[in-house]
Each structure stands twice: as structure tokens, then as C-alpha cells.
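Protocol step 4 of 6: structure prediction from sequence.
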Amino acid sequence: MIKVKVEFLGGLDVVSNGVREHKVTLEGEEGQVTMKDLIDHVAKTVICDARDIPVFIQDDTVRAGILVLINDTDWELEGMEDYVVESGDVFTFTSTLHGG
């Protein structure tokens, strides 16, 4: 099992009833679980209402307008969905979209 922390910032915490930080346990062996697996897990277990999934996911990946950091590094530099998750990783999802 792999234990990580998931954070929702910039108002994105609305998808998890206002809870910003989540301790997440992923099934699988070190070296075999990817960011894609984490995204799927978050959609199934952390997002409280299935109707909010499109706020977070579009076309099987994180929706445009959400900044994704893996251990404080832009996920584009880490391989995006192909990043191999390790215990202790911190994943931050921050909405950059604001109403007005």
C-alpha cells in the first residue's frame, strides 16, 4: 500500500465538502501505481458527489484550469499521468479558474 497526501486549494475543496487535505492510501506495490491511478482513486473515493467529478476530471485527466503539483513541482515536469507514485508524495490540485 502507498500512502500519500492530496490537497485541494483555490476553492477546489468544494468537491470534498470543504476538506482541503486528505490522507490517501492506494492499493498496489511501489513502482506500479501511477498518477493516473491516483486520479481515478480520488474521483471514486475523495470527491463526495459524483456530479462534481467533471469539476475535477475531463477526458480522463485533470481538467484544464487546475494546476497540479507533485511534491511542489509542476506535474508536466514529472511525466503527468505517467508519474510513478511513491509513499510520502504530496499532490496539490489548485483551481486557477475564478468567477467574476
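Step 5 (inspection) to follow. The longest strand covers residues 2-9.
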